[in-house]
Design a protein that fits this description.
The complex is a heterodimer.
Chain A: H1 2-6, H2 11-21, H3 23-28, H4 34-37, H5 41-50, H6 84-89, E1 93-94, E2 99-100, E3 119-124, E4 131-136, H7 146-149, E5 186-191, H8 202-209, E6 214-222, E7 229-238, H9 246-257, E8 263-265, E9 268-274, H10 279-312, H11 322-328, E10 333-337, H12 338-344, H13 348-354, E11 360-366, E12 369-374, H14 377-387, E13 392-394, E14 401-403, E15 407-409, H15 412-429, H16 434-470, H17 476-504, H18 511-533, H19 539-553, H20 556-564, H21 572-593, H22 601-615, H23 628-636, H24 668-674, H25 678-688, H26 697-728, H27 743-746, H28 753-756, H29 761-764, E16 773-775, H30 785-802, H31 806-827, H32 838-841, E17 846-850, E18 856-860, E19 869-873, E20 875-879, H33 880-892, E21 900-902, E22 907-915, E23 922-923, E24 929-936, E25 939-946, E26 955-958
Parallel strand pairs in A: 23-26
Antiparallel strand pairs in A: 1-2, 3-4, 5-7, 5-9, 6-7, 8-9, 10-12, 10-15, 11-12, 13-14, 17-18, 18-26, 19-25, 20-22, 21-22, 24-25
Helix pairs in contact in A: 17-20, 18-19, 18-20, 20-21, 21-22
Chain B: E1 3-11, E2 23-25, E3 31-36, E4 39-44, E5 50-54, E6 61-66, E7 72-77, E8 81-86, E9 90-96, E10 102-107, E11 113-118, E12 122-127, E13 132-138, E14 144-148, E15 156-161, E16 165-170, E17 176-181, E18 195-200, E19 206-211, E20 215-220, E21 225-231, E22 244-247, E23 257-261, E24 267-271, E25 277-281, E26 290-296, E27 299-304, E28 309-315
Antiparallel strand pairs in B: 1-28, 2-3, 3-4, 4-5, 6-7, 7-8, 8-9, 10-11, 11-12, 12-13, 14-15, 15-16, 16-17, 18-19, 19-20, 20-21, 22-23, 23-24, 24-25, 26-27, 27-28
Classes of the chains: A alpha+beta, B mainly beta.
Chain lengths: 986, 316
């Protein structure tokens, strides 16, 4: 010890040693002022203590040196404030020297200004204000009672408090002895503001005021002019027969209640006052006068508006601009001036929205303004009446809404028209005498009759004549020639059609002709039928028309062509044809409508056809022309086998692709299916060339049965292959089939994981659990995915309802645990039964099933929210060397799956043989869970938490976080199927 | 102790490339059915005549099973389907549901339920009356190659798979009751040994299991213990799942015989009680793997991959 000090070790050591050796060390310590050295021991110790050093009282065991003199046990009293700062700064009484320190340095408070004897503060009332004044204290002066000094003065003997209120006089109750009129027992209830928007029921008022007393009379007043209620009521109270005062009191009470306030009922504000000196009559009269004034005002207003309207609709009124006349079309419209609109930045839409309740037909924006067009003048007027100067539109310029001023435009052209008609009517009205009237009437009738006769002659005499002359049946030579021409024309059209088809595409088939041809024929047929049924006078005309159509029927392709290619064909003939066609159709239409009018058109049409013939080019297309007989022939062929106009020949039936059959051998059934018609059969016969004759009946039977067998076999094959693909969705990998025989004959071979996908459906469905056990009672056939999905959905729904907040659950569990803890404390012994694992309580319902990623997987049974705890990873806790050894043995024995989970450097949890369900969780590169190591009760445990929301029946995965393996042989392939899959676990 | 005597050769080895996988003696002992391609060939054990029963399978057959009344034959085919063929009326049902070749099937002794296992790692339980699928048990991770039901107890089902696991299922619930790992402590150097055949003993208490390392074991599956171990093949990694069966003698006193076919064409018989090698027949089957061994009473039928089918009789 002394060596250390000799070498000059610094304070920590010294302090330590001093602490140990107490006084001895303290004495030895140098550097202390000698004054304090002389202090008593106690002070010096205390001093050290105050300076924040470790202090052991001398009595403590540690401070006692081995050979110490026995000290008195009780510590000396210690002075608390005997330190430097106190001593130096303050007026300090040193108890040791028993005198005050700094006595001389301290200043006295006494000064020249202040009296020596001190001072007092008194209230000075010398001026009108009382204020505090400092006065020198006079210790010699004796205090006296001030009350004794102020003797009572004689004039101030009667003092009375001034009233600020009138004294309430007692009320003289009216009784039988009273003389004079009784006090008022009525109240009048009248509205404060006149407002007719809402109505108040009288009974409500009556009921309310009956709370003040018994009502004997209740009267409400109506306007004698309009018979509208004025909402003025007079309530008269009554009382029991003996008590004369009661009615007055009730009236007073009611009036007093609403003296300063108003009586509110259903939005009305009523004033209530006592009906004194016929006050009610005054009020009623006032209201009536008010109403009269109001009515007069309204009347004036209406008059003013009417006059305005008259002015606006007068000659000075706005005119509809010329270019809008057609659009407005004689309908009334409201105009909002352009200036107004442009100033306030209003748009058509604003008006449309604001005026939505009116039946305007459109809103036009014009250079002169916005026109709101109405279909009906009454609507326009209504809108004008209601909205003019009332409708407020939000202005873009000003902050406040602006009132819109409309001006009504009653349309001009309609006015003109009516004027015109009016003029006529006026003429007719001004008949001079009855004779003139009769004359005019007769004139009119004669005129009408003449017109009818004219029409009749045209219809009955001239018409048939003309038709007869034009009937082609009467001119066989001409019709024959015409037919010929038509034929030629049709051929040309055919050629043109073919060319066009060549140009366009090969897709068009012969069918299209048939389609149109049939339709046309049908139409004509119907028309001619109608003709037969109709009146004889029209027969000739109809015959004509039908003959016209007959001629058209011979050239159905022309119709067709015109139908299909009415425009943009470069050929001249086509253009002509289309004209022709249009003319014809026009003729037909006219016939349907009027009958006679087409007479004049006919020759024109003839000319047209003639001209078309002349200009039709026929030179180059001649060789392709099919004559009509050939066409007829073609048409006779069943539709299916008709030759095609397209360039490439096409088969009628879809091609049989024997190569695409799944089985290489072709059965007889296939042939049967392949043979579609006679021709095919002939070909097949030629190919096979069967021995036709030499079949006995027996052999024939055998052949038949063989054929049947073969065909059924083929059918079965198709069925099976279909079933296989339907069950499996993907074709079975043929490399998995043994070459020569069945699976068993093929013997054992390791199936690569990748190929398993082709026959394990659950492998292909990521996150779709395959329950280990399925009950198939519900599904009679092979279990279908549809069924499964449905049942899963149901499950999910059920679970979704059950999902409750895990927080609540946890709270419940915590409470439960607390209960158990309390019980444990009461029992007082550590019972194994009662040790509760917090983690198992928070566990989520999960199950294991076959997984798509690897053999088994863990699946959520319920939806799990993100960040929820799912399950603890339970297993044997191993030390690191043991884990390494086990890993080696597992690898050697072929347990490919690793269930070792590292907790920290020295601990590994092995769930290979003893472990929880959590070991089934597979790796995924895009995991749904994460493993966290948390401390529970001083032990590290692995807990799986959800990373994101997990749906029911979804597979749980976490990232195994294996170390990267450099050796490619050692790397484990990953089948997690995530889009971000790295391909390997390590 | 007696030994097997050749009764007759039902079928000489075939020359073609058709491979034979299954031959079963009918429960009534009158017929032996042999799978040939997609057909079943029926041999009469008395007059040795044969008839071909065609099936509608499009792929060769792996296994077949007689119905307990000897009227129907269920066939497991590579076309993923099972067809139940009545010997007189033809096809009764086509059971569709597997997504890979069906490897094995087994009737319950009542004949109303058929269990099948497949390369698709599942076991399916079918109702024969309606031909509907009752249940699917997916509990293996490699093709399930063999299943068996105790002769008089259809409540349990055992399956053997290439994943080296033997599982015992409760057929009523479909739950796995027990898993018999081939090498419980994973001490073997070669890792997982695929199981090739499982066969219950007649009393339903023991399970004879053959694995592809040529070792036969008799499991007391209730206790999960191996009670007997036989070594039939020399090679440690075999390819074919050769047939095994118990042969029960007529007299109650003598112990059942364990018969196993080997890949080299031998048929080996052991005493199940004493583990004593009783017989090793190597002069037949000409080196072709013995694919199936089917016993009924003292009769035994063996079939090798090349199609040679022999009928044997145990004689004292």
């Amino acid at each position: 010890m002394s060596d250390y000090y000799g070498r000059g070790y610094d304070s920590p050591y010294q302090r330590y040693s001093r602490g140990h050796n107490g006084r001895r060390a303290g004495r030895r310590h140098g550097g202390r002022p000698p004054k304090r050295e002389s202090h008593q021991y106690g002070y010096s110790r205390r001093d050290e203590y105050l300076h924040g050093e470790t202090y052991f009282p001398p009595s403590s065991r540690m401070s006692k040196p081995v050979n110490a003199v026995v000290e008195p046990l009780r510590p000396k009293p210690q002075l608390r404030f005997n330190n430097d700062s106190f001593r130096e700064k303050y007026h300090y009484f040193d108890p040791v020297s028993e005198k005050l320190l700094h006595r001389d340095e301290m200043k006295s408070w006494a000064s020249e200004k202040l009296p020596k004897t001190g001072y007092v503060i008194v209230q000075d009332q010398s001026k009108d204000k009382t204020r505090a004044v400092m006065k020198p204290r006079c210790p010699d002066q004796k205090a006296v009672d001030p009350r004794s000094q102020s003797s009572p003065s004689p004039e101030s003997g009667v003092y009375r408090k001034r009233r600020n209120q009138l004294v309430s006089l007692p009320r003289l109750v009216y009784d039988k002895h009273s003389v004079g009129p009784p006090p008022p027992n009525e109240i009048v209830v009248y509205p404060v503001f006149r407002d007719h928007s809402s109505a108040v029921q009288d009974i409500a008022i009556k009921n309310y005021f009956s709370t003040f007393g018994e009502i004997s009379h209740f009267q409400s007043f109506n306007d004698p002019i309009s018979a509208l209620p004025l909402y003025v009521y007079v309530v008269r109270y009554t009382g029991p027969p003996g008590n004369l005062d009661a009615p007055f009191r009730a009236a007073y009470k009611a009036a007093k209640t609403f003296e300063n306030s108003h009586y509110f009922v259903s939005g009305f504000k009523f004033a209530v006052s006592i009906n004194r000196a016929n006050y009610s009559q005054k009020i009623v009269d006032g209201f009536i006068q008010d109403n009269i004034k109001q009515a007069a005002k309204i009347k004036k207003e209406v008059e003013r508006q009417n006059s305005q309207k008259q002015i606006s609709s007068g000659p000075q009124a706005k005119r509809l601009p010329r270019d809008l006349e057609r659009v407005v079309n004689g309908r009334p419209s409201l105009l909002v001036l352009k200036r107004f609109i442009s100033i306030h930045g209003l748009t058509v839409e604003d008006f449309k929205i604001k005026l939505a309740k009116y039946k305007f037909s459109r809103v036009l924006n014009h250079s002169t303004g916005i026109y709101i067009v109405f279909n009906d003048i009454s609507d326009a007027r209504a809108c004008m009446f209601v909205e003019n100067d009332v409708l407020a539109m939000p202005s873009k310029r000003r902050r406040t809404p602006v009132k819109v001023r409309f001006s009504l435009i009653e349309s001009q052209p309609s006015i003109v028209a009516t004027v015109k008609r009016d003029g006529l009517r006026d003429q007719k009205k001004t008949y001079a005498s009855e004779e003139q009237l009769l004359e005019t009437a007769a004139d009119l009738i004669i005129d009408e009759l003449g017109r009818a006769l004219d029409r009749d002659i045209k219809r009955r005499v001239i018409g048939p004549l003309v038709f007869d002359s034009l009937n082609p049946a009467n001119y066989p030579a001409i019709t024959a020639k015409k037919d010929e021409e038509e034929e030629r024309k049709s051929e040309q059209r055919r050629v043109a059609a073919e060319q066009k088809q060549d140009q366009q595409s090969k897709s068009a088939s012969f069918d299209i002709f048939n389609l149109y041809g049939a339709r046309f024929r049908k139409k004509n047929y119907i028309k001619s039928q109608i003709g037969e049924q109709s009146e004889p006078e029209y027969e000739s005309k109809l015959k004509f028309s039908s003959s016209l159509k007959d001629s058209g029927q011979e050239k159905p392709m022309a119709h067709l062509l015109n139908e299909s290619s009415r425009s943009n064909t470069p050929l001249a003939a086509e253009n002509f044809k289309s004209d022709d066609e249009q003319a014809q159709s026009a003729v037909e239409d006219d016939e349907d409508e009027e009958g006679f009018s087409d007479v004049s058109e006919l020759p024109e049409k003839k000319i047209k056809t003639g001209s078309s013939e002349a200009t039709t080019p026929e030179t180059e297309s001649n060789k392709y022309v099919l004559n009509s007989s050939r066409i007829q022939e073609l048409l006779r062929i069943p539709e299916k086998y008709r030759p095609d106009a397209s360039e490439e020949p096409k088969t009628i039936y879809p091609q049989d692709d024997f190569d695409s059959y799944e089985f290489s051998s072709v059965s007889l059934g296939d042939f049967q299916r392949a043979v579609k018609d006679e021709e095919d059969f002939e070909t097949l016969k030629n190919i096979l060339n069967p021995p036709s004759s030499a079949l006995s009946s027996n052999e024939e039977y055998i052949l038949h049965s063989l054929v049947h067998e073969v065909s059924t076999e083929a059918e079965e094959r198709h069925k099976v292959s279909k079933l296989q693909t339907s069950a499996n969705e993907v074709p079975f990998d043929e490399s998995l089939r043994s070459s020569a025989g069945s699976f068993k004959a093929g013997g054992f071979k390791k199936i690569p994981d990748k190929l398993k996908n082709c026959y394990l459906p659950h492998r292909r469905k990521l996150h779709q659990p395959l329950n280990t056990v399925y009950n198939h009672q519900d599904t009679p056939e092979a279990v279908t995915d549809v069924h499964r999905n449905e049942s899963e959905k149901l499950d999910m729904d059920a679970h979704a309802q059950e999902v409750s907040s895990s927080r609540v659950n946890r709270a419940i569990n915590r409470r439960f645990q607390q209960d158990i803890e309390a019980q444990k404390a009461m029992i007082g012994s550590e019972s194994e039964l009662l040790t509760l694992n917090q983690l198992t309580k928070r566990k989520k319902p999960v199950t294991f099933a076959r997984s798509a990623i690897h053999n088994w997987g863990l699946y959520a049974l319920e939806p799990i929210a993100a960040k929820e705890m799912i399950i603890e990873y339970v297993g044997e806790i191993l030390r690191q060397p043991v884990a390494e050894m086990r890993e080696r043995t597992y690898l050697k024995s072929g347990i490919g799956s690793s269930y070792l989970f590292r907790v920290d450097e020295s601990t590994v949890i092995d769930a290979t043989k003893k472990g929880g369900i959590a070991r089934f969780i597979n790796h995924c590169c895009d995991p749904s869970c994460t493993a966290k190591i948390i401390r529970v009760g001083g032990r590290k445990r692995i807990v799986i938490y959800a990373l994101r929301d997990i749906a029911a029946n979804e597979e749980l995965t976490y990232d195994y976080k294996f170390e990267r393996e450099t050796d490619d042989e050692e790397r484990l392939p990953c089948f997690c199927g995530a889009p971000t899959c790295k391909g390997f676990l390590n | 102790m007696g030994q097997l005597q050749l009764n007759c050769t039902l079928r000489p080895p075939g020359s073609g490339n058709v491979l034979f996988t299954s031959a079963k003696i009918s429960p009534d002992g009158k017929h032996v059915a042999v799978c040939e391609g997609t057909d079943i060939v029926l041999y009469d054990t008395i007059n040795m005549s044969s008839t071909v029963v065609p099936t509608l399978h499009s792929q060769p057959l792996s296994d077949m099973c007689w119905s307990p009344d000897s009227q129907c034959i269920a066939t497991a085919s590579d076309d993923f389907t099972i067809i139940i063929t009545h010997l007189v009326f033809g096809e009764l049902h086509r059971l569709v549901g597997h997504t890979a070749p069906v490897t094995s099937l087994k009737y319950t002794f009542k004949g109303n339920i058929l269990c099948s296992c497949s390369m698709d790692e599942s076991i399916k339980v079918w109702d024969i009356l309606t031909g509907t699928l009752l249940r699917t048990l997916s509990a293996h991770s490699e093709p399930v190659v063999s299943i068996d039901i105790p002769p008089f107890d259809p409540s349990i089902l055992s399956s053997g798979s290439y994943d080296g696991l033997i599982r015992i299922f409760d057929t009523a619930t479909g739950h796995c009751l027990k898993t018999l790992t081939y090498d419980k402590d994973w001490q073997s150097e070669n890792g997982v040994v695929p199981i090739s055949q499982v066969k219950f003993s007649q009393n339903g208490k023991y399970l004879l299991v053959k694995s592809l390392d040529g070792v036969l074991k008799i499991w007391d599956f209730v206790r999960g213990k191996v009670v007997r171990t036989f070594k039939s093949d020399q090679s440690n990694s075999l390819r074919y799942s050769c047939g095994i069966d118990f042969l029960y003698l007529d007299d109650e006193a003598s112990d059942p015989v364990v018969i196993s076919g080997t890949e080299t064409g031998e048929i080996i018989c052991w005493d199940s009680q004493t583990k004593q090698l009783l017989q090793c027949i190597s002069d037949k089957h000409a080196g072709s793997p013995v694919m199936d061994i089917s016993c009924l009473g003292a009769q035994m039928c063996s079939l090798s991959l090349n199609g040679e089918c022999n009928l044997w009789k145990w004689t004292e």
